Amino acid sequence: MSESFARAIFGPAKQHIRVLRDLGIGKTKIPTETVRTPRPIPLQSWRKALTCSVLRTKVSIHANRPYPLNYKGNYAMEFILKVKRLTEDATLPSYAHPGDAGLDLFSCHDSVIEPGKVSLVKTGLSIELPPDTEAQVRPKSGLAIKNNVTVLNTPGTIDEGYRGEVGIILINHGAIPFVIKKGMKIAQMVIKPIIRVRVSEVQTLQDSQRGEGGFGSTGL
């Protein structure tokens, strides 16, 4: 990364350039090892986010580019979802199209869900999420509109530390049995960043315009 490129991203502030030089990013390009980012950084502003990353010395630095290219050819942070097959018939999660938010999840066995019944459909996979993320299991719109089948506890949450098999709780709201075939798309999984908080007990809360209004208080 050149100093002019750094200035274009981080602005003209001298302290930013000093930090970049301390990290080995100056007028010459030198190969450096990748420093793994321990937590995802909200990318609301590239300049703000990247500046914050560098000042914390947790930015991934490569010899010729700071980040891998995404499907649009833009620089983007890369997060790895580690997946372990528990059965040979398991299908790895995958994006159906570039830019999709959800990874498709597939059944690893045949089953039938009777009308009004609930079934735990197994994927034959266990996962290791990137640090400070969760996986949200959401329904497939096609199954919902065509077969009245959806994820019962949507969005289902898979915690970062969970290492068991990923199972999908499906319910059949239709009038006829729903047949699930091995390899069928049954849900989608969206990886989301999480914010952990410190709980603080207080005696009073700051007033707001809404106050205690809820359960339809804003109208239908």
**Tally of distinct domains:** 2
Query: Which percent band covers the strand fraction?
Result: 15-25%
Main sheet specs: 4 strands, antiparallel
Gap from first CA to last CA: 54 Å
CATH superfamily descriptor of the largest domain: Deoxyuridine triphosphatase (dUTPase)
CATH topology of the largest domain: Deoxyuridine 5'-Triphosphate Nucleotidohydrolase, Chain A
Q: Low-confidence segments, ≥5 residues, pLDDT <50? A: 27-38, 43-66
Rg over CA atoms, rounded to whole Å, is 23 Å
SS-based class: alpha+beta
What's the number of extended β-strand segments? 11
| Overall geometric form | globular
Order of helices and strands: HHHEEEEEEHEEEEE
- The CATH architecture of the largest domain can be given as Distorted Sandwich
The CATH first-level class of the largest domain comes to Mainly Beta
Average pLDDT score: 79
> Which strands sit side by side, in order, in the main sheet?
2-11-6-8
Tally of contiguous helical segments: 4
Overview of the structural elements:
- With 220 residues, this protein is an alpha+beta fold.
- The chain folds into two domains: 1-78, no CATH class; 82-193, Deoxyuridine 5'-Triphosphate Nucleotidohydrolase, Chain A (Distorted Sandwich).
- Helices cover 15% and strands 23% of the residues.
- The chain has helices at 3-10, 14-22, 46-55, 141-147, and strands at residues 82-85, 103-106, 111-113, 118-122, 125-128, 133-138, 149-151, 156-158, 167-172, 178-180, 185-193.
- The termini are far apart.
